[in-house]
Amino acid sequence: MLQEAVEALEVKPSGTYVDGTFGYGGHSRAILERLGPNGRLLALDRDPQAVAAAAAINDQRLTMVHQSFGDLAVVVRQAGIDAVDGVLLDIGVSSPQLDEGGRGFSFRFDAPLDMRMDTTQGETAAAFLALAGIKEITEVIRNYGEERFAFQIAKKIVAARSERPVATTGQLAALVREAVRTREPGQDPATRTFQALRIYVNQELEQLALVLPQAMDILKCGGRLVVISFHSLEDRIVKRFMRAQASPDNLPKNLPLRSVDLPSPRLRLVGKPVKAGAAEIAANPRARSAVMRVAEKLVGRLVTNNLAGGYA
């Protein structure tokens, strides 16, 4: 969905853009190809390996920052940027993170149970499982993994750690497989638990909820917000945010208000949600669940009752 996402940004040669999830630079390279000599791209990623990968791009138009997109507004301000023409967010774990066994994201490799996107800070998945109680583990697996056997899995983990720490992906996957009584066709029983722990450890949904209003604030009028999500929990947050910003508050019809006094939408939804095509799914099966949503910031209206003046 790389080309679709970059095309949705409608890159202007002299524009300023944000790639909030640099990864290994696919989107950033495509944006740079469309920028002119006066364009600018600010890229963020909390994964030190992604930041290191950015060093391979020798381009003065690119500024790479080791930071989570949850701090987008601060990063933009520190970069001396007042407003941007577009923000691109590709949410969730990247393919390189999943494919590198030592990171602990995947049950396909036996590795330390880390799961942190930013390996320089924060609690590992192993540290969480070593101290959390059955109730807390259950809530994490149920809420972030939508796993119906969350309680059974949590009990199995707590019982197992009384004998030895649950410290590797192989140990955790084996425990989950013992606890899950039925299997979904084509899916390993450990899939939902690994997803849940990764989301929890990295505060992925909380970071997403933080970045969306910040992206709105830093966009110029007419600027584009493009978000790619990979599972229903993420997409639900994006969908609700965009719809809320695109629809004025529902007020009682009998209020004595003129149309000019009604709240104006801040976003315009651009097209329908886009899903990966058959060719992309064949090349990258993980793209099967990808959903891209696009919105455009609208011109704010003058707030007549604001003593300080200005625009909403």
UniProtKB/TrEMBL annotation:
InterPro entries noted in UniProt: RsmH, SAM-dep_MeTrfase_MraW_recog, SAM-dependent_MTases_sf
Class of this enzyme: transferase
UniProt EC number: 2.1.1.199
GO biological process, one term: rRNA base methylation
A molecular function (GO) term: rRNA (cytosine-N4-)-methyltransferase activity
Subcellular location(s) per record: Cytoplasm
Keywords: Cytoplasm, Methyltransferase, rRNA processing, S-adenosyl-L-methionine, Transferase
Entries under SUPFAM superfamilies matching the protein: Putative methyltransferase TM0872, insert domain (SSF81799), S-adenosyl-L-methionine-dependent methyltransferases (SSF53335)
Catalysed reactions, semicolon-separated: cytidine(1402) in 16S rRNA + S-adenosyl-L-methionine = N(4)-methylcytidine(1402) in 16S rRNA + S-adenosyl-L-homocysteine + H(+)
The organism's place on the tree of life at top rank: Bacteria
Residues annotated as binding S-adenosyl-L-methionine: 25-27, 45, 69, 90, 97
One Gene Ontology term, aspect cellular component: cytoplasm
Pfam families: Methyltransf_5
UniProt similarity note: Belongs to the methyltransferase superfamily. RsmH family.
UniProt function note: Specifically methylates the N4 position of cytidine in position 1402 (C1402) of 16S rRNA.
Protein name: Ribosomal RNA small subunit methyltransferase H
Annotated source species: Candidatus Propionivibrio dominans
